[in-house]
Design a protein that fits this description.
This protein has 354 residues and is α+β, with helices and mostly antiparallel strands. It has 2 domains: 150 residues, Adenine-n6-DNA-methyltransferase TaqI, Chain A, domain 2, CATH 3.90.220; 180 residues, DNA methylase specificity domains (Adenine-n6-DNA-methyltransferase TaqI, Chain A, domain 2, Alpha-Beta Complex). The chain has 8 helices and 24 strands. The protein has a 4-stranded antiparallel beta sheet. The chain has a 4-stranded mixed beta sheet with strand order 4-3-8-5, with no helix packed on it. The longest helix is centred in the last third of the chain and has 12 residues.
Length: 354
Amino acid sequence: MNLNIKSWEYFKISDIFDTFQQGKANQGMLDEGNDCFYVGAKKSNNGVMFHCAYDSNLIQKGNCIIFICNGEGSVGYANYMNEDFIGTTDIVAGYSKFLNEYNGLFLATILSQERPKYSFGRKWKTHLKSTTIKLPITQDKNPDWLFMENYVKSLKHKHIITQNSNGFIKLKVEKWKDFNVSSLLSIINGSGITKEEIEDNPGAFNAVQSGEDNNGVLGKINKEYCISQNYAISEKPCLTVARSGSAGFVSYQPEGCVVGDSAKILLLPDDVADEKVYLFIQTILTSIRFKYAYGRKVTREKYLNEIIKLPIVYQANGKPYKDKTHRFSEKGYVPDWEFMKDYIESLPYGDRLK
């Protein structure tokens, strides 16, 4: 199906949606659990911050568009949410009797084009209902919901299949122990890399900056050029963390990358580095991202001193434990790298990983 945008008409957001509902929660109001999504000012992962316990006083219905009305780096984005959730006060949910998962994805894409208007600290909430967007129309000049639905259905894609059931390994977080990031990861500070350099030196090597879109990848650049400039690179799989902008956003780079001055490379020791371990650690590090909101920057010293909880394995006789990284734990335990792999593998679609 083709998009003939010239025939589209403008509609106010207030005319598209029947009702609007602001999010009610902040993190301090939540209990630990895996019952529902906690959704906030986050473009990636469909706005999901983490899972939490169900609370009937805070829950909001799914099948809605989530407008991110506040939040550094993400204000102005819109996501479609199909499941019930708990939302932060930074979001507003829009509901329409015509909305479904297909035209919802269409609408979220169109609405997110409004984001540039809300950069530099501008908030969306004040002007949300009066914002106008262009949409396909029916003969009687109403939004053509059926066209939007059929257009998304027509897009070519292959369904990803998994042999894993929902019986994934349970997390017993209460038995996890604290670890300093410095005992787990090494950090390489980024430098340089501009869009102009990427355009002038095209290649196949990912160049990562602080954005969340496209997994933080700004573009593809020539690796040899980066080496010649002595830029911060990893030629093996790694994590990256945004220093500013989307500060604290962590991405996994399976082919390695070069990072600019608004990001940093995070590396596990070679003998425990594994795609599944990296994905596990990425999720844990994302849970501390909130510490870098409101303009706080990720510095090497501060990030290395962060403390995260991880599953552990004990030395049976209580003696100092030597793990595969050739480091000792006087406490008699080290991170359970094998559990991390097994857990990721047990998740739906975990069997699709290498």
